[in-house]
Amino acid sequence: MKSQFTGILFFLLQLSLSAQFGEAFTVDYPQRLRIIDSIYTSFLLEKQSYSAIHSNLGELKELANLKKDDISLLMYSVLEQRTKLYEDSSSIDQKVATFLKVVHEVDINGHRLIEAHALLYLAQILKEKGRGGTSLSYMMRAFDLANNESGNEILVPQMIALRIAGILYLLGDYPKAKEYAIKSFADKMKGHRKMLSYDLLSQISLKLGQYDSSSLYIKKCIEVYVQEDTTRPPIKGWRGIMYGYEGKIHYAKNEIEQAIPFFRNALPILVDAAFYNNILSFSIRLAESYLMTGKTVEARALLPTMEKAISRNTDEQNFLDYYKLRVLLGEKNQSVSRISVVLDSILFWSQKINQQKDQNALIRHEMDFEIKAYKEREEELARNINRQLFIRSVLWKILGFFVLIATFIFYYKQKQIKQQKRESQKSLEEAARELALAHEQLNDFKNSLIEKSKRLEILESEVELTANDQDLENLRVKTILTEGEWVKFKELFERVHTGYFTRLKSRFPGLTQGEIRFFALIKLSFTNKDMAATLGVGPGAIRTMKSRLLKKLDLDGKLSLEEVVEEI
Fold this sequence. Notes:
single chain, mainly alpha, 0% strand, disordered N terminus
């Protein structure tokens, strides 16, 4: 009944809530975690107010408490603290510290996927707050957790690795970027995601001067591309990107004539797909290639394409390369003011890029510092564990010593116990003998009463023939069990059935002495006839007494007197 009520209550609660999180509790983990995460993400995408998000998360907490779901409660704590991180940037360090306490609680409880989720949340927010190095270190920790969690279908570690590789590439740490890019491969990675991995590996290899590897990854990217719907944005633009990268590989190898066709083939596809950064980058490389082969007219013909793309460009290096190309294309022959604008632009973007390089170096330093700090925390944890193991070893030795002492004491005590047992056995045997004797005496007493009852019965039948009614009545009320005999009987009864009278009085405190005797005779299995003779009453009186006792003791219809006697 209770379980039915709980089920009804849960149903009604789900109806009363907005049912945003209700769906999550219809499935088991890990799907439940995925649904909770996606619902929270929808709150952010819908740009809900923080108060609304807190309110919605309250629904998650209620459902988790109702279902007694500790894992969902931990997820609630993480998401609640995540929301607070967004609310006020002025106290970000304090809020990060509070967030990490929640993460530590998750870690203690051993829920690695939730911990990985939490660290990715933190990494995202820190990146938005300009803490790139710290952000990256937490992202790497999240990757380790997700990658080492068996049966993980929620957080794809390969996608995390791809994100890390992309950030490291932008920071200029190409060796480490390649390390994580390689980790991004998996059989489950298909289509667009797999193309991203090959594309990034190709670019990283190019930066490292590994031209053959770069070309190989482009070819693998093409193999995936041809299996996709090439008419679907953004897939259709990827053909142009791959042409352009092939061109860049030849360009880097100083194979200029081979590079030109790839750049030329890339541009129309990219223009159609509106990939402006790629349009500008490959146009510049193509124009440079034309200049290097003496085709100045062809190079200048690319300026309208570049000017259209530069207004929508977001890559700082493209800006710098564009203005440098302008100089190469003869800008120096123009007016002083025109030259000044171009040179100022070159200076501006050079400084901008140098500042970014300095910033990237700072971020890498911050990342290295955080990773070092993390390793130090891990080492400190390991040292603490080793100290605990040492202390545990010492404690085990001390315990072993005490066990030895305890063993000695145990055997000494066992010897004493055996001696006590022998003495107790003697006492028990003596008590058993006394009990057997009491049984025998009680049976003899019982048999003597029954024998007296039989003699009285015979006498009654003889007297009945000659005596008057008064004499016969006097004979019938003759009591075999006198007060003196009752005292002796009671003593023997108590020796055999120890504590019986005490238990009887405790259960039925209103019993009279006569009723107590009645119970004792029932205990000894006296027949109604024998009881009547023993107590000096007629057989009908015995039946009446039983009936009255049943009513007095409120046992009518529940138990017989014989059953009550056996229970006591």
